[in-house]
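Hi there, hope your week has been kind to you so far. Would you mind checking whether the tokens look sensible for this chain? I owe you a coffee for this, so here goes:
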Amino acid sequence: MKIIKTKNYEQMSRVAANILSAQIIMKPDCVLGLATGSTPIGTYDQLINWYKKGDIDFSEVTTINLDEYKGLSPENDQSYRYFMNTHLFDHINIDKDKTYVPNGLEPDSEKACSEYDQIIKAHSGIDLQLLGLGNNGHIGFNEPGDSFEKETHCVSLTESTIDANARFFSSIEEVPTQAYTMGIKTIMQAKKILVVVSGIQKASIVKKAFFGSITPEVPASVLQLHRDVTIVCDEEAFSAL
């Protein structure tokens, strides 16, 4: 595990974007696993900026997102498909037919998850997986529990995750309570993993996840077992160590 401590969010975003852009340059037809949430936005902004300058070409890249809320359409402004279009895909030369997000409108959870696993397998896995870190240690929507979930599955979100996501909705009642998410096994099968973490509110979980015991009660702790993980965090997120 490699840890890169940066001064602030802006520097964290630039370092993470450098790692992603290097992957694209080394392998133009790479498969990127992407994440949503507030933390990666700065990274995506930096990638867009470099694309506009002609430094990166996304035309051959395939992307596979971690998760999607169950019940939200791609047009819903709180869906993760909408997030990815708004914060990245609409601003670069990527083929949207090669950008994958779980089908939130598929009511049959087993079908939705099976179809997504088949997409991942059809692309021979993920070259570089980008992750954020939840306040309770979740990665994707893999919540704390008794065991590590293996492949794509439907998860009932914890109260803390729903509370954290409520700021994006008009009321907490509107926050979806379930989501389709890539499993821990699939994440761990990525050739490389990049985790971005920012803010004082993440300091405690950074310590638990990356320097504590490996336990499904802190899902991100499993990343300690991966052979090629880079953690990029700002000073505040690293302040408990």
Observations:
- Strands lie at 2-6, 31-34, 62-65, 67-69, 99-100, 128-131, 153-156, 178-181, 192-197, 229-234.
- Residues 7 and 161 are 27 Å apart (CA to CA).
